[in-house]
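On to my pick:
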Amino acid sequence: MNPPEPPTHTSVAERAARGRAARKRAPRRSHGHFEPPSDRPDPIELLERQARTRVPELVPIRYGRMLVSPLTFYRGAALIMASDLSRTPRSGLTVQCCGDAHLSNFGLFASPERELVFDVNDFDETLPGPWEWDVKRLATSILIAARGNGCSAKRQEQAVLDTVEEYRSAMRRFAAMGSLQVWYSHLDADDTFSQLRSELTPKLARDTEETLAKARTRSSMSAVAKLTHVLDGVLRIRAEPPLIVPIAELAEGEERGEIFDALNDHMRSYVASLERDRRVLIEQFRLLDFARKVVGVGSVGTRDWIALLLGRDEHEPLFLQMKEAQASVLEEFMAPSEFTNHGERVVTGQRLMQASSDICLGWLHAEASGDEEPRDFYVRQLRDWKGSAEIERMTAKGMSAYGRLCGWTLARAHARSGDPVAIAAYLGRGAHFDRAIVAFANDYAEQNQRDYRALAAAAGTGRITAETGV
């Protein structure tokens, strides 16, 4: 599939006609069903295939985190769902997809203007693809989360309806805007909270205020307090194996020095990927320490590092995350990425989809050394006012409110790279598509439950090893 190309040189009427014509290719009601085909790949085999490219000793942690609940399983099952979505109807309208648009991959962070914004915040799987794949993955995550929180079936479906209805309504609004207006649109967290406050219960309002306040405390300085200690008069990253392992713990003597030098070279390669003004900024910092760090659920086992840098003095720390970028799970079912470096793929997709991106966002390529294969990485700040909703504490009303935020945000992200006029015309004014996605989410939540049980069974028989509580 070709990269998304908004038809800026065709009339609005022609673009709308293209969207309506897509209904013949994939009627909106055709999205409302999922039934696993008889030749569906074994989901555990798909996970095992991913594990072959990951750090072996960390793979059991990934499985253990996936087994915490059906929702955490879903978070780690992007490849499984991509395989399933590849057999579902497609509208033929392409956007820059997130590729893993579940509700936990949205959150708070600081814009370069030091405003707290809400946006999509994970792009490991980003690739041009069908916009409806992102919508289905988001909607199903909402239903699974609402089910896990004990919401009634009616409330589960309402949360999905609210999410998809907001996506559809927002896309209609973006379709009526000029391209620059779409590009400048964003969700300021404080303004959004002020507008929604009257709709929230007192408890939900307090929880939201706490989330906003907590996000503002999550900075490199707070990371220093949590992740470092002074060793022989020098600030070093504290070991918390197996989740955080400094290079001092990974190697000794000459080998340790070689690893540090190689990582320092990688940092220089990363800096070269930045725009000149950002390059000037980062070059004012000096590298102190590196550590391998386990992050997330789906990413566990990839080679992820954190780097501690200092600016003018010890009161100006900067923590960067250097995260391995492998091929997107969508690439097996779509055209391969146009980028030879998967770090650049991630960074480009992030900049396309986000209203405002981290000023430290960049990428690098690490050549093969020893037994290691060549690898791609992207780099960003580890903490920059980052915050996320506590999904497990959400009430039914809170789930609907959060779903609407995610629905609007996803529509804005898609409108930046795709054709909002065509997508809005495809969706229409009524709730036909919304109801179809509720039906799909119910079907796929059941499939996710079966796959979750299959992973638990695989752990029980010893097919896979799962390390829980880590």
Observations:
- The CA atoms of residues 288 and 434 lie 51 Å apart.
- The two ends are 39 Å apart (CA to CA).
- The chain has a mean pLDDT of 93.
